[in-house]
TrEMBL record:
Similarity annotation: Belongs to the bacterial solute-binding protein 3 family.
Gene: glnH_1
A Pfam family that the UniProt record links to this protein: SBP_bac_3
Major subcellular location class: other
UniProt name for this protein: Glutamine-binding periplasmic protein
Highest classification ranks of the organism: Bacteria, Pseudomonadati, Pseudomonadota, Gammaproteobacteria, Aeromonadales
Species annotation: Anaerobiospirillum thomasii
Length: 247
């Protein structure tokens, strides 16, 4: 199994790098998100993270070669659809809309929303937040969850424009809880970026999964290889070892 990492791929304008003539025979071109810790980010001139390491382990287990293309997330799906990428592992939530244009592997990570509170709040279930104030970012799945349950739990809702603002609101007692993407907040808390906060409920209902993606109807052999490799690394414990480093 051979792998190479190509840096500086930030947009489809860099399509020259995706030319199949530049790739070794039998080598797949696979994208990851250039900046999405703990799944993929550059550190000391090399990409690391759950997505990067899971892909590497899967490729070894399924015996295929690939070139890793870190790029902005907004270029990943267009790159797949245009055929400039063979596959992508970039924290892509699988949903019905995306399944219209992409085929997915078996889920490789359970994502979803976490409920975050100040340390010592003694919140263990959603009912403990009855009548409490939520800090949410506008237009997010977290905001939608709170809005859908506002009357049921008598939530008071405060809207913010960024995740750091919601976290600061809870830290400063301007709100009682917030909702954030589970793996992102779990990693931030683990490395000490969000001191004073804790995950009260790791995942609320309706947990989506991340999947490895290919263009719909294309690269089915790669998809089969990914699924086979994923099965192997879950069975032999490699998958759990990778994830436990970060979460």
């Amino acid at each position: 199994m051979k792998v190479k990492q190509i840096f500086g791929i930030t947009a489809l304008a860099s399509a020259v790098f995706f030319s199949s003539s530049a790739m070794a025979e039998g080598e797949f071109i696979i994208a990851c998100d250039a900046a999405y810790a703990p799944f993929s980010w550059e550190e000391n001139g090399k990409y690391r993270g759950i997505d990067v390491e899971v892909l590497d382990a899967v490729a070894k287990a399924a015996d295929f070669d690939y070139e890793l293309k870190p790029m902005n997330f907004d270029a990943v799906i267009p790159g797949l659809i245009s055929g400039q990428l063979d596959g992508a592992i970039a924290g892509i939530n699988m949903n019905d809309e995306r399944r219209k244009i992409m085929d997915f592997s078996e889920g490789y990570f359970d994502s979803g929303l976490s409920i975050i509170v100040r340390k010592g709040s003694n919140v263990t279930k959603i009912e403990d937040l009855q009548g409490k104030k939520a800090a949410v970012k506008k237009g997010t799945t977290g905001a939608l969850f709170v809005e859908q349950n506002e009357s049921k739990y008598d939530f008071d809702v405060a809207y913010y424009t960024s995740s750091p603002e919601t976290m600061m609101a809870v830290k400063n007692s301007n709100a009682d809880f917030l909702l954030e993407d589970y793996p992102v907040i779990a990693y931030q808390i683990k490395i000490g970026v969000q001191e004073g906060l804790e995950i009260a409920i790791p995942r609320v209902s309706g947990t989506p999964q991340y999947g490895f993606a290919v263009k719909k109807g294309a690269n089915q052999e790669l998809l089969k290889k990914f699924n086979a490799g994923l099965k192997k690394i879950k069975e032999n414990g490699t998958y759990d070892k990778i994830v436990s480093q970060y979460l």
